[in-house]
Amino acid sequence: MIMTFTRVALVSVLALVPLCGQFKRGVNLSGAEFGGALPGVEGTDYTFNSEQTFQYFAANGLTLLRVPIQWERMQPRLGGPLNPNYLDGLKRDVDWAKQYGMSVIIEIQNFGRYSVDQGGWYQEYVIDNYYNGAIQVSRADLANFWVRMSNEFKFEPTVYAYDLMNEPHDMGSADWLSISQAVLLAIRDNGDNKLIMVPGDSWSGAASWVWVHGSQGWIWDPANNFSYEAHFYFDADASGEYAQPFDDSVWDRATNAVYSFVDWCNQNNARCYVGEYGVPADDSRWMDVLDFVLSVLDNAGYDGTYWSAGEWWGNYPLSVQPQANYTVNQPQIQVLWNHLGW
Which one of 111, 135, 272, 301 has the minimum C-beta count within 10 Å? Predict the structure, then answer.
């Protein structure tokens, strides 16, 4: 059931929410990564969200924004300059976040890949893999991208972190662990000590984290300012598609995923972050699962961003974008209110 709240009621709810710890909580703010077309047309294939969306989530205490972008749109040619128009859209997001006291994590929604423009059609290549005897997209290309982004944002305090890559997976002969280490060091060599979110391989899945990565962390950071990043979805294949209805096996999956990841972080004395977690709104039992998982993350003190918000989601069942001109809240918002952190 979708519930409505007046501004007075919202303030009353927030006044009752305890500050649970020194961590940040918020949402993914989707739109700029939308659309299969490359490079795409703003307003047709993809969008940057309006000021009103920033204002809404700030008013709801969800002040950490993970903003997905497309690598190909921001850097149309590998090793080349950033696209000034697309960059302006991202900087406008950062300006609105600053206006409303929010923080931004910039991430590229590319899954360990880049699509190269080959005369008007695009061919996708996995980083550090050989194609016809040559590497088409390398870790040096990814490092070049992040150094260029660092040059734009390293002195901007509203940009809280860089998120190196969304959900790398099926990396072939490439080693995501060594790729992420190399890219982090390139950012540090650029004189930038900003927080870096380092996602795991195999879709960054929390449930398979230990099996995929082993018992030990892999990042050495001279600035000692990074977080390992996992994603939490609780359907049977951990995809976030939630094709099957709720059943009691969900609890085992959720418990195993959250505790195994937290234990791994503790054993490695590592700072950790949950970049995505989300549940559908069609069954109230999903809200109980979300509340449980966030309670564990509260105790661990992890930053977290719900998947997802954004003005183009429509009827997407995981969306927390408000309806009816920002007057109707999605039911997941009530759970998120109870886990805001500082």
Answer: 301
